[in-house]
Design a protein that fits this description.
mainly alpha, two-stranded antiparallel sheet
Length: 251
């Protein structure tokens, strides 16, 4: 069965437009939208750079030749993936193209592809940890913050915006990292899984990749992916925040 991807993108575009109107109609909706921008740029840029960097280190210079081995956000942004990050907290960047035949042969090609795929989510989790530490340092030593019941409060609007931006960076990186671990094409999780499957199973997955992509889009459109992923993101976010706040003696 063939489904025209233009129809899928049209449905997604209409859903996202509706979400945008809903967000902007809320009180402080525009401010909330602006606060997410740094998190989106950081999450996507470092995620895709990590893919390119891993491929380059494994011997494939394709990302380098295509100008993807940099931290310029506009090199790595994908329209729909970026909008999803704004409204859903998870999404994707422009895929980094690789040529597995260029990899050095220290490890198998399937394992090398899995390493390149895993580099993106791993980078998002590293960024998350870095900004958790930054947030805890600011709350502990900067004036204008206090913690009550495990929640961070700011005594001024400026400090509140600073904390919100850092919190957004943390949650978006968690969202992007977890979302991309879903083992469905075209997400990184499918390539990670494929790297550890037997040869026949890997070929079967590759030959049915378009069907899996349709399944992925369908699950997202009907809200099943959000229903599964959002609680996981929330648990990881709250858990990491509590862990680092405890380490810094804030709770």
């Amino acid at each position: 069965m063939y489904i025209d991807r233009r129809l899928i993108f049209l449905i997604i575009a209409l859903m996202l437009f509706s979400s945008l109107m809903s967000l902007l109609s809320r009180e402080n909706g525009l401010l909330s939208f602006v606060i997410t921008i740094p998190g989106i740029l950081i999450a996507i840029t470092f995620h895709e750079f990590a893919h390119a960097f891993a491929a380059d280190k494994l011997g494939d210079d394709t990302p380098r030749r295509q100008g993807r081995l940099n931290l310029n956000p506009f090199t790595h942004l994908d329209l729909f993936g970026t909008i999803m990050l704004v409204f859903a907290g998870f999404g994707w960047g422009k895929p980094v193209e690789i040529n597995p035949r260029n990899f050095n042969r220290d490890i198998s090609l399937s394992k090398a592809e899995a390493i390149v795929a895993a580099a993106g989510p791993i980078m998002n989790f590293i960024i998350t940890i870095v900004f958790e530490i930054i947030l805890c340092i600011i709350v502990k030593f900067a004036p204008g913050f206090y913690v009550t019941g495990g929640n961070i409060y700011a005594s001024s609007q400026i400090w509140g915006i600073v904390a919100s931006i850092i919190g957004s960076i943390i949650s978006i990186n968690i969202g992007l990292g977890i979302f991309n671990l879903i083992p469905l094409p075209p997400l990184d999780g499918s390539k990670i899984l494929s790297g550890f499957l037997p040869y026949n199973a890997r070929n079967w997955m590759d030959s049915h990749s378009q069907i899996f992509e349709i399944i992925f889009v369908a699950l997202w459109i009907v809200g099943i992916l959000s229903l599964i992923i959002s609680p996981i993101i929330s648990v990881v976010n709250n858990g990491l925040t509590s862990l680092f706040m405890s380490m810094f003696g804030l709770i």
